[in-house]
User: Fold this.
Amino acid sequence: DVKVTQSSRYLVKRTGEKVFLECVQDMDHENMFWYRQDPGLGLRLIYFSYDVKMKEKGDIPEGYSVSREKKERFSLILESASTNQTSMYLCASSLFVGTGTGYTFGSGTRLTVV
Amino acid sequence: GDSVTQMEGPVTLSEEAFLTINCTYTATGYPSLFWYVQYPGEGLQLLLKATKADDKGSNKGFEATYRKETTSFHLEKGSVQVSDSAVYFCALNSGGSNYKLTFGKGTLLTVNP
Assistant:
């Protein structure tokens, strides 16, 4: 069964810490995405990557960065965690083959910044 | 730009009731349309999709028809079960160089026994 795996289901971090959220997919997908999900706001795209070492900003990139050194791995980095970054973070991947391609999502990481 | 509007929730139904969750969209070109479902504590799963006008996507008793004339993709199920309780997201992909999905805000469905 193909999968997108997020390294942690729950994380608690302190304000000011540097936080790494890891995502690995085993489907040889070109595209990978990071979203955050908040009540009443739905899903908001933070960053995405369409190839190794390539990245593009999404709708809310401020306070975040990403790294994609290998095709299967896409990391989200919170440079200095703040309480307003408490959220559910969802990683997804997709093929690079046209508009009919949906996403495969990971199970999510619920991050709490205290 | 692209946008998706879903009916606001929460929606509460009794088991075996008929379900409709409305979804309309704005997009350039000819988008593909999707419904995703998120069960409690989990990530999103693709429920069904349609890639061109008049296509009907279906899965697990759910259906949605791509209506270009009304720019809609309403989700329906004839008889819901308690296990259908989840958040449902409508989404579109209008192509381009990066294949981003644009999501609606989600509709929480609760089905009571």
Notes: Chain A has a mean pLDDT of 92.
